[in-house]
Amino acid sequence: MMNKEEIKKLIEKKKLIENYPHLDTQLQPNGFDITVDEVHRLKDKGELDFSNSERKIPETEKIEPKKKNKEDKYGWWELEEGAYKVKTNEKFNMPRDLAGIVFPRSSLLRMGCTTETGVWDAGYRGKAEFLLLVKNEKGVEIKENARIAQLLFLPIDEVEEGYGGVYGE
Length: 169
Known about the structure:
By secondary structure, this protein is mainly β. The chain has a single domain (4-43, 73-155), classed as Deoxyuridine triphosphatase (dUTPase) (Deoxyuridine 5'-Triphosphate Nucleotidohydrolase, Chain A, Distorted Sandwich), CATH 2.70.40.10. 12% of the residues lie in helices and 41% in strands. It has helices at 4-14, 23-26, 106-110; strands spanning 17-18, 27-28, 31-42, 60-63, 76-79, 82-93, 98-104, 113-116, 125-134, 140-143, 147-155. Strands 1, 2, 3, 4, 6, 7, 8, 9 and 11 form a nine-stranded antiparallel sheet that branches.
């Protein structure tokens, strides 16, 4: 796993991560905090098969954040118990010798919420989307650009062929 200094070097020299709100705040001893750009409500069911030839990703509806005061620069999402899709501010440029795994921030867990995401494959380029599960029956409020999860980088032997899915750039 990479440390803060190694991650910072890759960000500055190789543009590992772009479009982050505040580098020094988001860099952590063992990872990088990911921030919320958009929150979406799932509108219908999905369908998943072995080959992905019949895969159907559910449509979503973007939830607009609301400002608590007129002077506020950023708004808040007031989320009820349920499942939501989150899109990140950050754009990721994973080299072919680095994979990533994401964990929820402990503050989020203490509020009765968690995140779920798959392995971030070597070679992936683009913004990320993942699942936010609000398990707190009272709900949660999340402010725009909140740090919601932490990405850990795992050096691997360079792969010949990187990410080949449909979700990146």
